[in-house]
Amino acid sequence: MNNKLFFNTKINEDFGSVLSKESEEIGFYHLPDADTSEYKTYAKTIKQKDIVVVGIGGSALGTLAIYHFLGLGKSFEKNLHFIDTTDPLVLKHKVEDIDLDDALILVISKSGATVETIAALKYLQSFVPICKENYAVITDPSSDLEKFADAYGIKVFNMPANVGGRFSVLSAVGLVPLAIIGVDIDAFYTCTRGAWG
Known about the structure:
Layout: H1 3-6, H2 9-25, H3 37-45, E1 50-54, H4 61-71, E2 79-83, H5 88-96, E3 103-109, H6 115-124, E4 135-139, H7 144-152, E5 155-158, H8 172-180, H9 186-196
Parallel strand pairs: 1-2, 1-3, 3-4, 4-5
């Protein structure tokens, strides 16, 4: 490939306009939200010591990565657990590490119909009764999961419609559980705005 051709002005200008147009359509470029007050207010109401993220793929992996990274040099006010499997042996082992009498279950699914997540939810409800004190939901507006939560009066945080699951860690998907365990989530805004301008 001719590098001079690849990096000529016209291509750079075209790339810039494509990126600019893309940033208007893809919500990831506008995360995290500058206003985190709803997340922080909710986090202060949570008394449970064990916070359980129930989700798979982008609904859990980004938060898990940040949690492990930050945990290298810091201890948190609460414990964060991840239920991201339907393997019965792994699931049983993970549940044994959680104080289910002192747990908040955060069910996360963009579509609101992720089979693995709903299966894990059904398993957990046999230990933790479904009510607004024990559960919260993060999902797309009007999803089946949101309707389920509404029927029980469970707190719902919506994901931005134009943010794909794998890019959602800087939305409610990551910011809510991190705020609950005591992470300064406003620092993410400062950090990313500094990096992305």
